[in-house]
Design goal:
Layout: E1 7-11, H1 20-34, E2 39-43, H2 53-64, E3 71-75, H3 76-79, H4 83-86, E4 94-99, H5 111-125, E5 130-133, H6 136-143, E6 152-154, E7 176-181, H7 190-197, E8 205-210, H8 217-226, E9 236-240, H9 247-253, E10 256-259, H10 268-275, E11 280-283, H11 288-291, E12 297-300, H12 305-317, H13 319-333, H14 339-351
Parallel strand pairs: 1-2, 1-3, 3-4, 4-5, 5-6, 7-8, 7-10, 8-9, 10-11, 11-12
Length: 358
């Protein structure tokens, strides 16, 4: 891969934050660098996607300092609300928007906020030469904002190959171990999962939840309080945020991966679960319809507690079904893209960008 100058990834905050979007940005840049590409990371701190005046002023200063002709791959968490900052540099710089999912589709927004985000993102995307998305479903969402479908490119996240033998479930006493890897926010739907499981106390299961409890501390406290007593007491374990390298033991120890999200632009944790040979139960939400292999997973309607209860009861109680789904997951794992290949696709896309007019 030939080295290229003036490739900049604009990152809204700390890319070591363990969310799918940040992991995608960081791993893609690292893999591109491993292949000889010269890529800079431009970190812009702030309360994205609701930056204050000081944050916008700093963004303007940092962007104005970029050399003419630079290619800027801007994460949509910031790019979507930077239209006014980007506009003066729309012809001087080559902009590529990286959209994990349109911001107005975030769960829990009031109508006015969602409408404002939709209008701002639509305006900002007019300045992008290309838009990179992580799934065909997100490509459709971006096209709905008025972007030419020919300018939209799908580059799905890569996965790492698990350590040898992690596809085999860890030996332990009887009981089905459920795993959910998701930040404790409204969009991830933990409450739906708890509602469903509270009606299944007669079955032998435990739930292990991995994910940050600081993004929405009020919700996190409410969720954890629900499991301190009653039918969920002693059966739900909250592990908080863990380092990426510490996730593999959780996947290896689990029997079933569960994700009750209300929307996903891809669902990287689902791909990681499949890579570890885990069967998946998830919501029929956003790109999860495409991410979850039919034979390796089951999808239920968003926010449908009875459907979740019934699906969980069936999968917890039917070990043969879980084994068949796990075998399908192991087969599907071989078809998942890897980070080096996805980095090469991104680099090829950037190399084809037109030069700026003098």
């Amino acid at each position: 891969m030939p080295a290229s100058a003036n490739w900049v990834f604009l990152i809204p905050g700390d890319w070591n934050t363990p969310t799918g979007g940040y992991v995608y940005d960081r791993r893609l840049v690292e893999a591109m660098r491993d292949q000889g590409c010269r890529v800079d990371a431009l970190r812009l701190d702030g309360a994205w996607p609701f930056p204050d005046a000081a944050t916008l002023a700093e963004a303007h200063r940092r962007i104005a300092a970029l050399p003419d002709g630079a290619c800027v791959v801007a994460d949509g968490l910031a790019f979507a609300v930077l239209g006014e900052v980007v506009a003066p540099h729309a012809r001087r710089l080559r902009w590529v928007a990286l959209v994990h999912h349109p911001l107005h589709l975030e769960t829990g927004l009031d109508a006015a906020t969602a409408d404002a985000l939709r209008r701002r993102e639509t305006e900002a995307l007019r300045h992008a030469l290309r838009v990179v998305v992580t799934s065909p479903g997100t490509a459709d969402d971006v096209a709905a904002l008025g972007v030419d479908p020919g300018a939209i490119h799908v580059i799905e996240p890569g996965v790492d190959r698990p350590a040898a033998g992690t596809e085999d479930r860890v030996a332990r006493p009887a009981g089905v171990r459920l795993l959910c890897v998701a930040t404790l926010t409204h969009r991830k739907g933990h409450a739906v999962l708890l509602d469903a499981l509270s009606e299944l106390s007669h079955l032998d299961w435990t739930l292990h939840c991995v994910g940050s409890q600081t993004r929405d501390p009020v919700l996190a406290r409410a969720l954890t309080a629900r499991t301190a007593a009653g039918p969920l007491a002693g059966r739900v374990f909250w592990h908080g945020e863990v380092a990426p390298q510490a996730l593999s033991p959780h996947y290896a120890a689990a029997d079933l991966f569960v994700l009750p999200s209300r929307h996903e632009g891809y669902g990287m944790v689902v791909a990681e679960a499949i890579a570890h040979g885990l069967p998946v139960l998830a919501s029929r939400a956003g790109a999860l319809v495409q991410t979850v292999p039919a034979a390796a997973g089951q999808l239920v309607p968003v926010d449908d507690v009875p459907a979740w209860r019934d699906a969980l009861a069936r999968l917890i109680g039917d070990g043969a079904l879980r084994r068949r789904m796990a075998e399908a997951a192991q087969q599907a794992a071989h078809r998942l893209p890897r980070w080096p290949g996805q980095a090469a696709r991104m680099a090829a896309l950037l190399q084809r960008l037109p030069e700026v007019a003098p």
